[in-house]
Structures are given as structure tokens and as C-alpha cells.
Amino acid sequence: MIAGKSIDQLQVGNAAEFAKTVSETDIYLYAGITGDFNPAHVNEEYAKNTFFKTRIAHGMLTAGFISAIIANQLPGPGTIYLKQELSFLAPVHIGDTITARVEIIELNTEKNRVRLKTTCSNQDGVMVLDGFGLVSPPKSHKK
Q1: How confident is the model at residue 2, as a pLDDT?
Q2: Neighbours of 44 (CB within 10 A)
Q3: Cβ-Cβ contacts under 8 Å for 52 (sequence gap 6 or more)
Q4: Residue 100: CA count within 13 A, CB half-sphere
Q5: Does domain 7-136 have CATH number 1.10.260.40?
Q6: d(CA 102, CA 14)
Q7: pLDDT tens across 11-32, in order?
Q8: CA distances to 18, 78, 141 from 71, in Å
Q9: Which of 42, 68, 45 is nearest to 57 (CA)?
Q10: H helix runs in 19-135, sequence order
């Protein structure tokens, strides 16, 4: 079994990133999985009359990139996601390349908790999402 890093393997300042270009297919798949068919995401004619003037990606689709880092990289497999605070700062458009970043800002070894700074930025360096997460990394496998 592949296991992520236990709290004794982590340090404040550790960070990881994941980047993905958001496609129209991503938006439709996310809508189908979640049932969120807000026309701002799936109807270009409707979206033309919105503040953004075109379709935008779901905010939670973007937030999912943070979950990917936590699950796969930092702390990694076996980590339990406990809490996430999010602020959506700018729209994500079809074709934007989003870089999600997770950085450890606090370790609580007694409670096995890791506090994370979580952000997503687009290809122009514009922060589109900002927040904080709280996770419980996998237990140490030391005997």
C-alpha cells in the first residue's frame, strides 16, 4: 500500500503544486457528476449576459485541484480532509491553466493535524482561489 507522509515526516514550509488546463469537457463532466448545471457554466448564450460575458468553470472544480494535491502528494495517500475555507477571487475560463498550491503552515503533532495554505492561480499569475485547509495525515508506520 502506498502511504502519504506522516506528521513526523512533514515540516512547516513543505509545499506541492498541481497544474491543469481547464477544458470544456472538464466543465461538462463536473456538471454531470455534481448536478450543478448553472447556465453560467454550461450555456454560452446565457453566460454572454452575465458579469463575466462568457462561461466560467465551477469554483468547486477549481477547488478540487487542491484536493488532488492533498490526496496524491502532500501529505498524500491516506490523508483525511477535515476542513477547507475558500475565497473565490477571479473567474476561471475554458483554456485557463490553473496551478493549485498547498503549503504547510502549522503542524499539531499531538492531534495529528496539519494546517495548509491553499491557493490556485491562472497562467497570468492571477490568484483565482485562496484559502486554508486542515487535514489529518496518515499515521506513522514506525514500530
Answers
A1: 79
A2: 11
A3: 40, 91, 93
A4: 27
A5: no
A6: 8
A7: 999 999 999 999 999 999 999 9
A8: 11, 7, 18
A9: 42
A10: 24-34, 39-42, 44-47, 59-72
